[in-house]
Write a structure and sequence with these properties.
The protein is α+β, with helices and mostly antiparallel strands. About 20% of the residues lie in helices and about 25% in strands.
């Protein structure tokens, strides 16, 4: 049975397991064994785990529950640590191969490639482990499978897609590469982040994601299940947010659901600072760490990522929970057995480290991995628009590469350290074998104090110096200004090429790029009515949170050193443009065979962990740069290098060609050069809808994609670019669809003059249903390579069970009888072949409300939130205001129906039963005087007027009332 917890009585289990192995007898005294069973690679994993578990003292077992698991010298067991970041390469451990950001990897639509990337990352993690043996390395916190439901999410770069099927297939491929694909031996142990429904950073530890059952099962869970079910991941990380009012750190689905997807032991971990964030002052869910840790352990967490490297608070809390009876030793045994199962499979207790123990540091940034990074960066790029401008001809050698990202590569928070950097300018120059003209298109300015006439100056050495005002007006007083949108700019000193940032005491030009958890290299030049500007500091966790008001810059010392001052003391500066970035870029592109403009984002600024995007457009100065370059050179190609969909304004209409790429790692420039000059044919496809405007989106906190018409599945508007979109330098013709066993076949022919890849996508649509259905839903895809004139028959799997959706009337998946459209094409809106499929499934019967009905299983609603029925489990519905309502469609009311009974909690109020509408015929009203707490439920009832037939039943609630279940009898 999948998901079964390991039971207490480990010694008996060990004895039985050992007796089942010929020639092996159970040890009489485990600690005296010369070759203990847990070190025998020929024994089953469960037997080895049980043997080791039986040898551990309770204190030792408790010590293993923290992220930093200590060594146990008496057993010869070394330290172990959960959590090495490996999102698109091994991060934070030094120079390593940096592959495209995760959203870029998914844009390849190439699971085979992603599997190879995962395998390379797994190898490099092993290589680092050889260099850092004291617990570093092999439990990897990747991939991120949170769905990209909202493109404003600050961590958009970390996810794969807005679609659960695509996310599941890509995460399974990456995870399979990380694990090595061996069912009994792990190269590394990947952990899926972040369970569950974590797609906003604003107030991320206190906001609750409302997941009605259909959204929960059809959408969010559907992204996590595939990799776990395929044994391509060894656990999940609980996310910071709440779901339906309950923090995910204590979500019982970690055990009840996730462990049911596999028969392997899973090692589930908390995100950093949890369960500590369950306490007052944050989530305020449990009053003490003892209660919070106990609840998390019982919910299915095995390892606590709390208090950094200090396990003391965790071990103390767990020990206290054991003393108070909140936990049993068997609860600890269960969690520790999950941890040990993964450690056994990693080969830690095998001779030589097991199957993968010989992988050493020579694999890190190896030639093979560099080649793979270039292939991945090439396949990830998406050609959004092309009016016969690309590919550039080989004879187009007199080109210019301009823009703020033309000659730099940026890394993100979870990136590894680049071992080298091939910028777009570098790649094109290498392709042509000659230097190319270039300009960043950034203004170079001076800032002169209008009151004193003194200039802001920076240090000239590599380490920079504190900014101060001086009489000098030379290189030290010049700064390059980069616009990243929303008024945010960065200042790079012309004196040493370093960015200016706040270092907790002053402002110094010492940073290679904006970086850090607190990105302190951000400023706003606030234009004043008199034409001067104030220089406002705009670092993340802005100065307002440290001081009451001092968020502006001005001289604070006798020597003119700049510091933070209140607005009324801020210096007024004349901003003089010494060199116009636009003019320089225009001069660079005039008369050239082509102009390549590279614009986009700075990953630490425009949106990242803990900070959602506030603006989906391109930075105004960047857009102006593109327009000026386009006016100067009609053959302008725009490369947008960022981590998310961008509205692009009118830009995409004005330029002839637009190519999108993520921040694609060390080989970005070579990949772009290959694509622009046609040595590679672009075939990446968008994994998200690119909306035309932010007005197309509801609140980022609205998780109900069905009701709010989110993602390509339900969006009824016209996007800028649709899900699955991507152009090619060749063309493809599709034949008709042929039904075959297990799916469909379609022939695809390359009708152009170039070899290229096509991503063949299969969608379905259910024509009629009891429930609202997606407009289209991806069910299969294949990336195929074709030479000019070549034809391939592509098989796309589609089983009847793939057509299921969640039936809220019976709380299970259902395939409805009816006709389904099968749509195959080059994107969700470019359908080339179609067929209809008659399915004999079920007809969802009318609701039977005489049986206890969970309130959360409504069909529609207004004015309610989904809330926690208790702190342990269950979901209820809470009214956020008076006249909130729930709809239960197509209920069969019999002649005997005359009484309404409900389980309610919360404030005093009423529940009305109405027919047809929230204001329809009133059948009855139940009253409550309120309960002692939101978790104290009482049963209320009311006599109803007679009603028969099939009707839509509405329950209308008073504000503050919670409803868990009800019956009509």
């Amino acid at each position: 049975m999948k998901g079964t917890r390991r039971r207490p009585g480990a010694a008996l289990v060990v004895a039985l397991a050992l007796l089942a192995v010929p020639g092996v007898c159970p040890p009489a005294h485990a600690d005296a064994d010369a070759a203990p069973a847990f070190r025998d690679p020929d024994l089953p994993v469960a037997a080895r785990v049980d043997d080791l578990l039986a040898r551990l003292t309770l204190d030792e077992k408790v010590s293993l529950l923290h992220q930093y698991e200590p060594a146990i010298p008496r057993l010869g067991i070394g330290a172990f640590r959960t959590g090495t970041e490996a999102l698109h390469g091994v991060a934070w451990l030094g120079k390593a191969t940096v592959f495209p950001q995760a959203v870029g990897l998914a844009s390849t639509w190439d699971p085979a490639l992603i599997g190879r990337v995962g395998s390379a990352v797994g190898d490099e993690a092993r290589g680092f482990q050889q260099e850092r043996p004291d617990g570093w390395g092999l439990n990897l916190w990747a991939p991120v499978v949170n769905l990209l439901r909202d493109p404003r999410w600050g961590r958009n770069e970390e996810g794969y897609s807005e679609d659960p099927y695509l996310t599941g297939s890509i995460s399974t491929a990456y995870g399979d590469g990380l694990t090595g694909g061996d069912p009994d031996h792990l190269k590394t142990a990947p952990t899926l982040k972040h369970y569950l429904a974590n797609n906003n950073e604003a107030h991320r530890t206190t906001t609750s994601s409302d997941l009605r059952p259909r959204v929960l099962h059809e959408y969010d869970e559907a992204a996590f299940r595939p990799a776990i079910a395929a044994d391509a991941a060894t656990g999940v990380m609980s996310s910071y947010n709440l779901v339906n009012g309950r923090p995910n750190t204590v979500d019982p689905d970690l055990d009840d659901v996730v462990r049911g997807w596999t028969d392997k032991d899973l090692l589930n971990v908390t995100d950093a600072f949890a369960p500590g964030n369950l306490l007052p002052g944050n989530q305020d869910y449990y009053p003490t760490l003892t209660e919070g840790d106990a609840a998390a352990l019982k919910a299915g967490i095995d390892s606590f990522t709390d208090n950094s490297a200090d396990p003391g608070p965790t071990t103390t809390a767990v020990e206290s929970a054991l003393e108070q009876g909140l936990l049993k030793e068997s609860d600890v045994d269960t969690a520790v057995s999950h941890i040990l199962a993964v450690r056994v499979r990693l080969g830690e207790f095998d001779p030589g480290g097991g199957r993968y123990g010989s992988i050493d540091s020579s694999v890190i940034d190896s030639p093979a991995h560099r080649k793979l990074a270039r292939e991945a960066a090439t396949k990830a790029a998406v050609l959004l628009k092309n009016d016969k401008t690309l590919p550039l001809k080989a004879s187009a050698r007199n080109v210019a590469v301009v823009g703020p990202l033309a000659d730099t590569l940026y890394t993100d928070w979870y990136s590894g350290t680049l071992p080298y950097a091939v910028t777009p300018q570098d790649g094109i120059a290498a392709k042509l074998g000659t230097p190319v003209a270039s300009s960043e298109g950034a203004d170079r300015i001076t800032l002169r104090n209008t009151a004193t006439g003194r200039y802001v100056t920076a240090g000239a050495t590599a380490d920079g110096a504190a900014l101060k005002e001086s009489a000098e007006n030379g290189t030290a007083s010049r700064f390059d200004v980069f616009d990243w949108g929303s008024g945010i700019v960065t200042l790079r000193s012309a004196a040493n090429g370093k960015y200016v940032g706040y270092n907790w005491s002053g402002f110094v030009n010492d940073q290679v790029q904006p970086n850090g958890w607190y990105v302190q290299q951000q400023f706003v030049l606030e234009r004043q009515d008199d034409g001067s500007s104030l220089l406002r500091y705009a670092g993340y966790e802005t100065a307002e949170s440290w001081w009451s008001n001092p968020v502006y810059l001005g001289p604070t010392g006798d020597d003119g050193t700049l510091g933070l001052v209140p607005k009324e003391r801020a210096a007024h500066y004349d901003k003089d443009v010494v060199r116009s970035g636009v003019d320089e870029a225009v001069a660079a592109v005039k008369g050239r065979d082509a102009a390549v403009v590279v614009v986009g984002s700075m990953p630490s600024i425009n949106g990242r962990e803990d900070h959602d995007r506030t603006d989906m457009g391109l930075a105004p100065a960047q857009e102006a740069l593109v327009e000026a370059v386009r006016a100067a050179n009609p053959k302008t190609v725009v490369v947008v290098e960022n981590s998310y969909p961008t509205t692009l304004g009118a830009l995409q209409k004005k330029v002839p060609a637009v190519l999108w790429t993520t921040h694609a790692g060390q080989e970005t420039g070579n990949a772009l050069a290959d694509l622009l000059y046609g040595d590679a044919n672009p075939a990446g496809r968008l994994t998200q809808t690119w909306y035309a405007s932010e007005s197309d989106l509801p609140s980022i906190l609205d998780y109900d994609i069905i009701k709010s018409d989110r993602t390509y599945q339900y969006f009824k508007g016209r996007p800028l670019y649709p899900f699955g979109h991507g152009l090619s330098y060749t063309s493809f013709r599709y034949g008709g669809l042929k039904r075959v066993d297990g799916g469909y076949e379609v022939s695809v022919t390359n009708t152009g003059a170039r070899a290229g890849d096509e991503v063949v996508q299969l969608y379905t649509h259910q024509r009629t249903s009891r429930d609202k259905q997606p407009l289209k839903q991806l069910k299969a895809y294949a990336r195929v390579s074709l030479k000019p004139g070549g034809t391939k028959t592509v098989r796309l799997g589609l089983r009847t069970e793939d057509l299921a959706h969640w039936d809220v009337t019976r709380s299970r998946p259902v395939v409805e009888s009816g006709t389904y459209d099968v749509l195959v094409g080059a994107s969700s809106s470019d359908i080339r072949a179609r067929a209809s499929l008659a399915v004999r499934g079920e007809t969802i019967p009318p609701r039977d409300l005489t049986r206890a009905t969970r309130a959360e299983n409504f069909d529609d609603y207004a004015g309610v939130r989904l809330v926690d029925e208790s702190k342990v489990r269950g979901t209820a519905v809470g009214a956020t205001g008076d006249r909130a309502w729930l709809k239960f469609a197509d209920a069969r009311l019999g002649p005997g129906t005359g009484r309404f009974t409900a389980r309610v909690a919360g404030t005093a109020g009423t529940v009305e039963v109405r027919l047809g509408a929230p204001t329809g015929t009133l059948l009855g009203t139940a009253h409550t005087d309120g309960t002692a707490s939101p978790y104290s439920y009482e049963t209320v009832s009311a006599t109803m007027a007679a009603a028969t037939g099939r009707e839509d039943v509405y329950l209308v609630l008073s504000g503050g009332l919670r409803l868990s279940s009800f019956t009509l009898r």
